[in-house]
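A reminder from the course coordinator: this example appears on the midterm review sheet, so study it carefully.

Given structure:
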């Protein structure tokens, strides 16, 4: 079935500062936790770092020109906090702010709407040294930083996302340790959850104070679509536990103003949540104008007796330490294929299920897909092109799945493909290519993949062709 999207639907592409910019020592930028982590042997595949990445810091005008050729309505990017406040607090580095100011001007001149993420994981190292997200001060510093960036760019930018995927910051950063800063302390991870929620609220207040009704406040979550292995009550309870720690630990404080009782109970042996102070939840519950949703795949779980050896095929389990705090009796089962080169199963029905579920739980809440895409083992063909029919099919089927959710009543306002460019894929380094545009890391040449041309046609017409262009 071919389908059309309204003209107002925003089509865009997403990136993140540490993954594309490079230039980590330039114009006064301070170190981030990802500089430190990637320089630590054994943390990132083959010792890759973001030192050069896609060299976007130097190639920004040409990259924006490419976005214009793609016809994008919007571009979602993140600000590197350590470029703007090299120590994470105190003095502002003008040159860092100027870079983003120029980027915004280039985008507006190209009629591309900027969507800014304030924090996509590159925490200034001095803040980690002072305790990181488990410490309350980090949330307070984040609120101050938010006021600085909204003050500098809010005259031209309406759409502000506070955090990208706080689940990853908290649990991959502080529990499993597969992301920076690489700590493995479950209680610290839960404290990070709360201070990320608080930081979101403080940053949201800064957006509201500066922009009032003009501002569009958002938070981007990687909500987990978790299904039970059977309808046995224990397996349904396994889903409940994962939903609590992965999804409701952020959704409920931010959209309802409290922590779920079952989350507090499940994690009671790890922490008493004494770090939650009076008034914090009212701050976290600042209200969203749009919820950002990142979606890639689905997961299946079952109950196992605590202490039983578990297969943890959750795509994040390459660590002896589990990110699943409070869920010691849950096993993640291997998912049937097909898979992307991340090992993530391809399941567009999860996209529809997620969006319809959200719109039922939070009627009237506008949603935006802030990331969706796939890594495959792309090759440059003899003709110099990159033919990536599997990515085209993935994107087709997931955009279709968004449309199905809209048919069922979900209020989805836009779709940002992950990613504009191949980039530094965190612990996987440069081995995983998510771009619709290939980056040749030797020359920094940009090569359009077939998916880029396919996406340009979708953006131009708003019409999703019936069949994916598979070869
Ligand atoms: C998400 C991240 C993004 C990218 C994709 C593949 O978790 O937000 O930076 O790494 O996954």
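Designed residues:
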């Amino acid at each position: 079935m071919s389908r059309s999207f309204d003209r107002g639907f925003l089509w865009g592409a997403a990136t993140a500062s540490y993954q594309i910019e490079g230039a980590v020592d330039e114009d006064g930028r301070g170190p981030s936790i990802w500089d430190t982590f990637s320089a630590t042997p054994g943390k990132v595949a083959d010792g890759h770092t973001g030192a050069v990445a896609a060299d976007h810091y130097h190639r920004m005008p040409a990259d924006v020109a490419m976005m214009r050729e793609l016809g994008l309505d919007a571009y979602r990017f993140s600000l590197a906090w350590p470029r703007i406040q090299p120590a994470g607090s105190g003095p502002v580095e003008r040159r860092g702010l100027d870079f983003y100011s120029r980027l915004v001007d280039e985008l507006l001149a190209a009629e591309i709407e900027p969507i800014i993420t304030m924090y996509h994981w590159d925490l200034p190292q001095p803040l980690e040294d002072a305790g990181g997200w488990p410490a309350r001060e980090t949330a307070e510093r984040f609120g101050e930083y938010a006021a600085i960036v909204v003050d500098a760019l809010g005259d031209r930018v309406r759409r502000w996302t506070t955090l990208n995927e706080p689940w990853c910051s908290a649990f991959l950063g502080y529990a499993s340790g597969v992301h920076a800063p690489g700590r493995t302390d479950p209680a610290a991870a839960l404290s990070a959850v709360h201070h990320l929620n608080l930081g979101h609220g403080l940053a949201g207040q800064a957006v509201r104070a500066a922009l009032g009704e003009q501002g569009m406040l958002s938070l981007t979550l990687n909500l987990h679509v978790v299904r039970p292995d059977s309808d046995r009550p224990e397996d349904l309870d396994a889903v409940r536990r994962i939903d609590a720690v992965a999804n409701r630990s952020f959704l409920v404080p931010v959209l309802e103003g409290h922590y779920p009782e079952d989350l507090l109970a499940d994690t009671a042996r790890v922490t008493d949540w004494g770090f939650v102070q009076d008034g914090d939840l009212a701050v976290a519950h600042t209200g969203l104008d749009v919820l950002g949703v990142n979606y890639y795949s689905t997961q299946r779980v079952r109950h196992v007796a605590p202490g039983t050896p578990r297969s943890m095929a959750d795509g994040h389990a390459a660590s002896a330490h589990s990110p699943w705090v409070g869920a010691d009796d849950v096993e993640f089962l291997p998912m049937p294929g097909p898979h992307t080169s991340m090992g993530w199963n391809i399941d567009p029905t999860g996209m529809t299920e997620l969006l319809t579920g959200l719109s039922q739980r939070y009627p009237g809440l506008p949603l935006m897909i802030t990331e969706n895409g796939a890594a495959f083992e792309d090759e440059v063909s003899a003709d110099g092109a990159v033919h990536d029919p599997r990515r085209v099919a993935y994107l087709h089927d997931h955009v279709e799945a968004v449309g199905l959710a809209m048919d069922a009543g979900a209020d989805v306002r836009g779709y940002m493909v992950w990613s504009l460019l191949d980039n530094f894929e965190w612990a996987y380094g440069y081995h995983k290519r998510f771009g619709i545009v290939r980056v040749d890391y030797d020359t920094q040449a940009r090569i359009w993949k077939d998916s880029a041309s396919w996406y340009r046609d979708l953006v131009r017409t708003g019409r999703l062709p019936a069949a994916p262009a598979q070869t």
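The mean pLDDT is 96. Residues 16, 19, 164-165, 168, 222, 294, 371, 418, 425-426, 434 surround beta-D-fucopyranose (CB under 6 Å).
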